[in-house]
């Protein structure tokens, strides 16, 4: 068989595939690429119009826009026109996923309103508006597009299909958030990133089906109060706030970002009503060297995964924070993320905890930001000494610097020394049967 014949046979094979298979292939592409396939043949010309996943990913243009500001307006016009042309030609009655990813702000509010209305009228299940600045910085809240429910959406429940809502770089005022929850009984995931939000977020009740609620770098929040529904996971990354979690019997995971000095914002008292249910806990502790209140820690009997992210700018002993791990008798995975600007080292003797604590179920230690300082070594030794069931140690020497003050080049230069220190310090201490991986 000639090469040409083989190619024709292959082409015939693809053209004989059912429409649903071809649409599945097209759904894996960005929309602009899927539309181009319409020029291949009569068979393909209108196929893309029936896509149920519309992913308008414009991140490829970000690099050009960042280096040439004159291109911003041109690229924005191209992107807006592309979305408009697709949605006005779309013929399928439903859209499962609708994703917008581009540097857009309040100046495009009218167009974005139309896109949101289109998606909701198509009974969308996953709606994502990623309007982050091209440099991935948090935009001034006054410049953000404000997410509003279209006037065509009534309070009769026209958002019955919406299951996942992801908003990045937008504004979402309190009344709108409550309205969304009221008319979206099947909404399970709500993710807000770089979003300007009403100061007091408060909702609950049996009519809410939300299971996953995540807020990252959202401005304007002063307090969050959640109560009386089946929430499974709650994550908040940002400055300290008042947090009230009550009557959430299905809550398994809590993430609390930027816990203040000495835990004086009472994060443990804020989650105490959920302590019996939690299986995973993540705390981002800022400036730990200034004080730590051990008595504030509560018992966490069912926590199996614990992550402590700590400011480790200086080579101060951080062993007191192992008290949180000691409050988790079922702990299986202990993760420690050390954040620093420069790998300051001090010459001092290694310390051990005054009263050893046996972790009967702890099998895995993960440490990122390990550089070989005494404070790093002390934490690793604590686990090696006290984890009776230890099986695996994973060391990631890559620095996780607060504020991104270290360039990628600076981090890469430090990696060989960090890897060497980890291998030299920890290999002789490994108990038999414990495996160690240095990334």
Automatic annotation (TrEMBL):
Annotated protein name in UniProt: F-box domain, FBD domain, leucine-rich repeat domain superfamily
InterPro entries noted in UniProt: At1g61320/At1g61330-like, F-box-like_dom_sf, F-box_AtFBL13-like, F-box_dom, LRR_At1g61320_AtMIF1, LRR_dom_sf
SUPFAM superfamilies associated with the record: F-box domain, RNI-like
Organism: Helianthus annuus (Common sunflower)
Pfam families xref list: F-box, LRR_At1g61320_AtMIF1
Ranges where the F-box domain occurs: 11-65
Record lineage: Eukaryota, Viridiplantae, Streptophyta, Embryophyta, Tracheophyta
